[in-house]
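Entry for the shared binder. Reason: the reviewer on the internal report wants the predicted structure included alongside the sequence.
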Amino acid sequence: MKLPVKKSLSFLDGLRGLAALYVATGHARWLLWEGGDNFKQLSHTYSTPEKMLAIGMSVFKYGHEMVLFFFVLSGFVIHLRYSLQLSKGEQAPFSFGSYFFKRLKRIMPPYLFVFALTFICDSIVAHNQYSIYTHTTPLPLVNQNIVFVHSWSSLIGNIFFLQDAYVPVFGSNGSIWSLKYEWYFYMLYPVLLFFNRKSPWFTLIGLGGIFLIYLMGFHTGFVLFDQVVACLLSWWVGGFAADIYNGRVQIKRYFLYPLAVIIPLIPLIHTSGINNLLKDQIVAFGFTGLLVLLLDYRDKGIVQSFGKLKWLGDCSYTLYLIHAPLLILANGILLKETNNVMPRSFVYVWLAVIGVVIIAYGLHFIVEKPFVSAAKRVPLKQPDVMPAMVK
């Protein structure tokens, strides 16, 4: 089987970029608009076009669920190389040292940079005593959820991906919670590859069993281990999709297409009383179905058109990392200028989104692109492995 050409998979870069844009837009909507609760109370004062726009913008509420797309896509791309080699009967040699340093080099430069950026933005917010810093904005959820922790223990803990397990997220940048999962998924991949060599199905079923055990309430007491392993299946279904794509798993793929129907049901899943761990896994299955569908129709013009957004995919990791502190700073400045009154217009939302995309695109040439190995891009001719991004 020939290695998939770069053109056929370039659409994944565009999809990744759109997903990052979705998350940034959702956070801008949250921080720079008067909010859904106010809209419900004052909807009678909105014109019909304004109502339609407000309702349409509510589609951006599901940033957490979008993390599952990044997990699935990451699992697919990280396993794609080895899956292809195994499908051809090759040994697929694996060097943990080389693998570790490639992942470290890929993730850490932008990740370390964003700690400095977060501290600078938060310091401006604190110095000016903006209402988002004093928790007195007109938005209760913003007041409850935006915190500013800049302790050394938090910084060091975040550098070692311990946020939300043993230390709080550093500063106001709550979006970096998912990097913990991504990093430790990477570190567990060699174990998954060991079992996957023997049987892709055994690996998937084994992780399914572990997931069910956690779903029933099992915990080891080791917080970090429990958090990561309980969610590992949501990442590995992407790896399993790579085995399907490369022919290691013989299955009628169209049986998986209906899983994509889960995606438009995300609003219902989000508000249901289902266990959160199960919610996430259901959504991950939905994105897996979509991924398999798009891979099978990758040569169609509508799918390949996403490849035109590769430029956005190239800076999507930087966009994910930097957008939250910049938008929080924008919230502080805006509310100071409006005497702590949130605007009902979405103009500031779109201006902020455009601004953070431009900044992210420029910064990625400095903090991201120089550290991406050319050797990884050229021989494989597949999308770079990108960390999962947002909350």
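Summary line for the report: Confidence is low (pLDDT under 50) at residues 1-6, 374-391.
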